[in-house]
């Protein structure tokens, strides 16, 4: 009985295969397919991809801790160019009126970059970001006309709350635009925040070309607070990955510029620098509707090691040197921003200096490759 069933199964199988095997026969009449047409023969428009191969992972969510080693702080007397008609000239050497030893500078940082729209012709990402800069300052020496900024920083610290939106808009297979806008509320506020007319906005626009899967470049313009003061600067983007995918660059000059070495698909090293800063309102010095703001700007040469922990979770460790670019202060009449640039003569409210310091940053991120 089993043998009969086996023979019957083989016969059925061969019957099914015969038409398939017969398709190789030269006598087939292919003319019967001549009238067939594609459902839609319209040419499909292709768009540039937003990335190239080998780049460091894009972080959707990240949490990190930043800390600077001790340094000295030198502060001038506080003047009020807007409300008191008395300030420090841009070329004036302001005498030190208050000093302190900063034992601790740092805090928690949270960043997000969430896709809202992800299509071939448009990518929109948005994110809420927070950065805490706390201080521990000892040996504060007020030399008579100091106004207590060191004590304010020691007790209240500085906070930055940011909302950033980025748009990637391709216009062809190689060419695209990147637009980025952000709003920042920065100051020594607590849970009560601060007046919304002190929110500062930044904007950048870059026209770029994706030359190949290994290279892209772009040119643009930015309105930025990267070094504390309001500035308008040209932007140069240059990202490249070598043929063996080991070496590369990730450059968005002047904001940051890094070389890159990929140890493997799960670990890499970045080496370069980043500019960091914002304009921070000091509540105690803000008279009436004016806003008294510390223009905090830093240059951070650094190395950064990134490694996959598990799946989409990566860790990163930075070590570098924080160089003081500016810690001066301005009084903004009616909280309205002004542009000093390199040649403006608007007077300062304070002229301060910070010692440079080694810093570390360690974090964990949820990423996409």
Structure in words:
With 369 residues, this protein is mostly beta strands. It is built from two helices and 18 strands. It has helices spanning 2-21, 149-156, and strands spanning 58-68, 71-76, 96-112, 114-119, 122-142, 158-170, 175-187, 200-212, 215-224, 231-241, 247-253, 256-264, 267-281, 291-310, 313-326, 329-332, 353-354, 357-368. Strands 1-3-5-6-7-8-9-10-11-12-13-14-15-18 form a 14-stranded antiparallel β-barrel. Strand 11 (247-253) and strand 12 (256-264) form a beta hairpin. The protein is globular. The termini are far apart.
Task: List the topology elements.
Layout: H1 2-21, E1 58-68, E2 71-76, E3 96-112, E4 114-119, E5 122-142, H2 149-156, E6 158-170, E7 175-187, E8 200-212, E9 215-224, E10 231-241, E11 247-253, E12 256-264, E13 267-281, E14 291-310, E15 313-326, E16 329-332, E17 353-354, E18 357-368
Antiparallel strand pairs: 1-3, 1-18, 2-3, 2-17, 3-5, 4-5, 5-6, 6-7, 7-8, 8-9, 9-10, 10-11, 11-12, 12-13, 13-14, 14-15, 14-16, 15-18
């Amino acid at each position: 009985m089993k043998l009969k069933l086996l023979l019957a199964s083989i016969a059925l199988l061969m019957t099914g295969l015969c038409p398939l095997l017969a398709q190789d026969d030269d006598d087939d009449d292919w003319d019967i397919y001549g009238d067939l047409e594609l459902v839609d023969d319209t040419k499909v428009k292709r768009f540039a991809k937003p990335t190239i191969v080998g780049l460091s992972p894009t972080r959707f969510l990240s949490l990190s801790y930043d800390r600077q080693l001790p340094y000295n702080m030198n502060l001038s007397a506080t003047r009020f160019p807007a409300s008191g008609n008395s300030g420090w000239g841009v070329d004036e050497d302001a005498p030190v009126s208050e000093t302190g030893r900063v034992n601790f500078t740092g805090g928690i940082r949270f960043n997000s970059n969430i896709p809202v729209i992800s299509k071939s012709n448009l990518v929109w990402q948005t994110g809420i970001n927070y950065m805490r800069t706390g201080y521990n300052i000892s040996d504060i020496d007020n030399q008579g006309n100091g106004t207590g900024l060191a004590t304010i920083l020691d007790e209240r610290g500085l906070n930055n709350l940011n909302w950033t939106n980025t748009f990637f808009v391709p216009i062809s297979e190689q060419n695209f635009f990147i637009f980025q806008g952000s709003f920042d509320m920065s100051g020594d506020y607590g849970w009560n925040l601060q007046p919304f007319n002190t929110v500062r906005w930044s904007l950048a626009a870059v026209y770029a070309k994706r030359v190949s899967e290994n290279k892209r470049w772009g040119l643009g313009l930015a309105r930025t607070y990267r070094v504390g003061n309001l500035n308008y600067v040209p932007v140069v983007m240059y990202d490249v990955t070598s043929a063996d995918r080991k070496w590369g660059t990730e450059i968005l000059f002047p904001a940051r510029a890094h070389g890159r070495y990929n140890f493997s698909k799960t670990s890499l090293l970045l080496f370069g620098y980043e500019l960091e800063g914002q304009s921070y309102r000091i509540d105690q010095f803000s008279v009436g509707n004016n806003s008294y703001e510390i223009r905090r700007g830093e240059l951070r040469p650094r190395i950064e090691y990134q490694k996959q922990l598990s799946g989409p979770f990566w860790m990163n460790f930075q070590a570098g040197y924080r160089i003081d670019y500016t810690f001066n202060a301005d009084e903004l009449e009616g909280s309205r921003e002004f542009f000093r640039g390199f040649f403006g003569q608007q007077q300062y409210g304070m002229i301060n200096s910070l010692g440079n310091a080694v810093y570390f940053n360690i974090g964990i991120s949820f990423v996409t490759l």
